[in-house]
């Protein structure tokens, strides 16, 4: 398999769905194959003719990752190497070792200082407020002894959401009853859970937020690209149709409609340009039916694993990186607007488990066009088709087994 072309080779950190998303986007735009590096070979990229997978069991360690990238740099000494991390861990590794990577790799990523500001949720929501970007009402609880009346007079009603501001420290902690995010019913439980988190060794802020109720109909996503000058050049918004029910995979989406939403796009552009964002970004939002606003929940410093929905909407997010950073071509500001359906499970599963309020819209979007990231005509060997069938069956069974966990 020949990787890249005379101008660039894409090096992807990760071997899952996002790796295939990036590889397919590049193959459609430039006809090139990409290199994916990771711990294990996963079905999403296995037996592909457009992505070469190389694995090392200890590829989660910084030095192993960096040594592998040094070897790749030596292997491809002529074209530019464009580096795409696909998950938070790989993104953090790239940020930590940016000085070493920069001489050899093109990295569509912001700097460490801004990354730290956006990843700390206290700073993130403060920034949203300063820029006038809608976000959930928030109260910050600082570490230390908890006031016995804390939570009795919040500016929003219960239930509330409780989550750590620092997502570097918190994942490493182990304690009974640990959850990624807590839905809390009353003030006494809010104080009890907060005390347990601090007692486990967490020493940063906790975020208490208003709870935005609803099923997938209130969930939205967006993906964007901004130039090294800090100017947003591409934004694509999506309406979530089906999210993941399996508790181990909560937060992943399995069906999205690409949408046009000028107010949402303007809000995201104000945020991106306001902070001087650089590179690829993935946003989670929720629509607040009470105010009619889409409220920004968080930003990830990489393309979303489900960001191939932008192709259904008429854009190519990953192409922006190459056009800007490899070829130096000016990018017009682009917003996708075609309402089409992206799926990661069989279409009948989407119709069976999507909220009733979204089914008519989903059918209409599907009639305009539907895409499945892994179903790519130039990459449809027998082995690929078998892998895709196994994944579809697994995802379909997951929805059946965990349907009681669907959002309401």
Strand content: 15-25%
Helical stretch tally: 13
In the residues, how many domains can be counted? 3
Query: What number is the mean pLDDT?
Result: 93
The third-level CATH topology of the largest domain is: D-amino Acid Aminotransferase, Chain A, domain 1
**What is the terminal-to-terminal distance?**
47 Å
Number of strands: 17
Radius of gyration: 21 Å
Tell me what you see in this structure.
The chain is α/β, with parallel strands linked by helices and 408 residues long. The chain has 3 domains: 8-107, Rossmann fold; 137-210, Dna Ligase, domain 1 (2-Layer Sandwich), CATH 3.30.1490; 216-405, 2-Layer Sandwich (D-amino Acid Aminotransferase, Chain A, domain 1), CATH 3.30.470. Helices cover 34% and strands 23% of the residues. The protein is built from 13 helices and 17 strands. The strands form 3 sheets. Strands 10, 11, 12, 13, 14, 15, 16 and 17 form an 8-stranded mixed sheet that branches. A hairpin with a 4-residue loop joins strand 13 and strand 14. The radius of gyration is 21 Å and the shape is globular.
Features:
408 residues, alpha/beta, Rossmann fold, Dna Ligase, domain 1, D-amino Acid Aminotransferase, Chain A, domain 1, 3 domains, eight-stranded mixed sheet, five-stranded parallel sheet, 13 helices
């Amino acid at each position: 398999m020949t990787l890249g072309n005379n101008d660039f080779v894409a090096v992807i950190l990760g071997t899952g769905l996002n790796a295939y998303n990036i590889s397919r986007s590049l193959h459609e735009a430039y006809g090139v194959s990409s290199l994916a590096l990771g711990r294990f070979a996963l079905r999403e990229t296995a037996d592909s003719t457009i992505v070469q997978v190389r694995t090392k069991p200890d590829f989660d360690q910084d030095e192993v990752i960096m040594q592998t990238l040094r070897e790749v740099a030596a292997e491809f000494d002529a074209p530019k190497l464009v580096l795409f991390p696909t998950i938070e861990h790989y993104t953090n590794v790239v940020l930590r070792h940016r000085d070493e990577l920069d001489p050899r790799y093109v990295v569509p990523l912001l700097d460490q200082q801004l990354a730290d500001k956006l990843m700390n949720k206290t700073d993130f929501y403060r920034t949203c407020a300063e820029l006038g970007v809608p976000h959930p009402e928030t109260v910050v609880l600082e570490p230390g002894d908890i006031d016995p009346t804390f939570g009795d007079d919040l500016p929003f009603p219960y239930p509330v959401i409780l989550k750590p501001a620092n997502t570097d420290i918190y994942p490493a902690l182990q304690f009974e009853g640990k959850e990624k995010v807590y839905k809390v019913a009353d003030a006494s439980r809010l104080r009890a859970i907060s005390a347990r988190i601090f007692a486990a060794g967490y020493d940063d802020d906790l975020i208490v937020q208003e709870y935005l109720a609803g099923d997938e109909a209130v969930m939205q996503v967006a993906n964007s690209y901004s130039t090294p000058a800090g100017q947003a050049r591409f934004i694509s918004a999506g309406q979530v149709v089906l999210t993941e029910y399996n508790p181990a995979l909560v937060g992943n989406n399995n069906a999205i409609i690409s949408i046009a939403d000028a107010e949402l796009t303007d809000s995201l552009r104000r945020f991106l340009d306001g902070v001087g964002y650089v590179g690829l970004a993935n946003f989670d939002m929720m629509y607040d039916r009470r105010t009619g606003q889409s409220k920004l929940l968080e930003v990830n410093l990489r393309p979303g694993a489900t960001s191939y929905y932008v192709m259904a909407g008429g854009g190519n997010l990953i192409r922006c990186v190459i056009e800007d950073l490899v070829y130096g071509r000016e990018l017009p500001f682009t917003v996708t607007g075609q309402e089409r359906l992206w799926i990661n499970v069989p279409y009948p599963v989407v119709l069976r488990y999507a909220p009733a309020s979204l089914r008519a819209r989903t059918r209409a979007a599907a009639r305009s066009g539907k895409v499945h990231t892994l179903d790519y005509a130039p990459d449809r060997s027998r082995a690929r088709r078998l892998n895709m069938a196994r994944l579809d069956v697994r995802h379909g069974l997951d929805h059946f087994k965990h349907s009681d966990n669907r959002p309401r």
